[in-house]
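User: Quick one: structure for sequence A, then sequence B.

Assistant: Sequence A:
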Amino acid sequence: MGEVLSPTVTKDAMFICELEIKNRAKGTERCNFQFTKLLNKGHKKIVEVRLTEATMLEFAVADFPGWRVEVDSLPVDHGVSEFGTILVPVDVDKHTIVLEFKNSEIRKIADLSSLLGLVIFSSILTWQYVKLKRSQKH
């Protein structure tokens, strides 16, 4: 299991709590939640959170096509902060949140196009090299 903390910004800057901004206006500095980090890899992040107020958790992950979010194994539409990071709406209570990067159809097409371009470029380069070698023999 992961490390249990009660952070404002988590120890590894994995995410921050939107309530922090609201709480400052009330004169309190801390977000009132606990989390357990279960997994923190580049393509997948899993945390358990226990919240006393509904909030938006802001993950330190830039949002772009391919990121999927689940709260308690249910897909959730995530938001985007003003800084371009992923915002996840979370209700009061204990929840498991999963962020996972999955390949998108557009990315597959782009990867194939890049590969095709590399093959064409390599073929032209090889053809020119062979042509040069033949001309040097004559």
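Sequence B:
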Amino acid sequence: MLNQNIINEVKHSNRIEYPHKEALVEAVVSDSIAGSATGIKTKTIDSGEYWLISKIKLASTGAFDFLIKDNRSSKSWFSNAEIDRDLFKKNTGAYEIDLPIPIVLKPETKIIIEMTDKSGSPNVCQFLFLGAKLTKNI
């Protein structure tokens, strides 16, 4: 779970009003794409929930580029061009994106992930979004 200081900062930032419930977000988005092809996959945040994404883990059966954006913003999260997953390889061999400032997603936001295979063979790409799920007190 996210550090309580981050939750407190969000409470006072006016982006989220009076959250009363915290839960771990572990949302997996997975897609099988043909060799050298592009695939698009989406994940929609439930009504009444806010997500604070602090880390994204990547896994795949081959090399790929990706672009992540959401339907509420005109910009992609990291770059306006697809980026190579290898840019996020850790010393452990895992592919992870640590976000020093969490990405805040409002209810019913749709996360859009575009993946392009670079291996030339069929590829399964997975994204694991980690962070906190907050429910607004209505």
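Helices lie at 4-11. The mean pLDDT is 81.

User: Thanks, that's what I needed.
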